[in-house]
Amino acid sequence: MSKVLLINGSPNEHGCTDVALQEVAQTLQKNNVETESLWLGKQPMQDCIACSQCRRTGKCVFDDQVNEVSAKLEEFDGIVVGSPVYFGGPSGRLTSFLDRLFYSTDKKKFAGKLAASVVACRRGGATASFERLNQFFLMTNMHVVSSLYWNQIHGCNADEARQDAEGLQTMRTLAQNMAYLFKAQDAAKQAGIEKPTYEAKVFTNFIR
């Protein structure tokens, strides 16, 4: 059975972001996909300090939820991250977590997994936040799952978010697509279709 980790980057455990993530989770479960939820909490989230110690040790120098998730990544076949919109972007808590997770973890642990982001806002800034979060997946050979619209839900609180019929439908469709792609991956494996073999990473910059 496939398994998905849903990460809630809102300081409000049961706010609008949670409404979106739970709609995804419930639809995944109906399609025989196991889910696990992680709320990042209210405590400050340490930023990456570019010490590069993770290059030597294989884990972040700050031993918190980042290392806990990194150690468990192989349990999950997909990841969905959720955030409220703050001034046209995702929460600092979530981006600090993802910066450190994706920088400190062996990129092979992400490759081939399905991924999606969902965002919650009162009115605007959703698409910019959605795009920002997807960049983590697009740089690590993950497969970004689509829906029938951008993955956004609207409301000032959880009760209002539950009234966003189109937003909720978008979340359910996202989950249906993800469940289908898990089945497609399983079918490919059974048919003997191998996963891509990647070239060694080439690092350049604009002066060499």
Describe the model:
The chain has 208 residues and is of the alpha/beta class. It is 40% helix and 17% strand. Strands 1, 2, 3, 4, 5, 6 and 7 form a 7-stranded mixed β-sheet that branches. Strand 1, helix 1 and strand 2 form a beta-alpha-beta unit. The longest helix is centred in the C-terminal third of the chain and has 26 residues. It is globular, with a radius of gyration of 17 Å. The model has no long low-confidence stretch (mean pLDDT 97).
Structural class: alpha/beta
Intertermini distance:
46 Å
- What overall form do the CA principal axes indicate? globular
Strand content: 15-25%
What count of helical segments does DSSP give? 7
Extract low-pLDDT stretches: none
What's the β-strand tally?
7
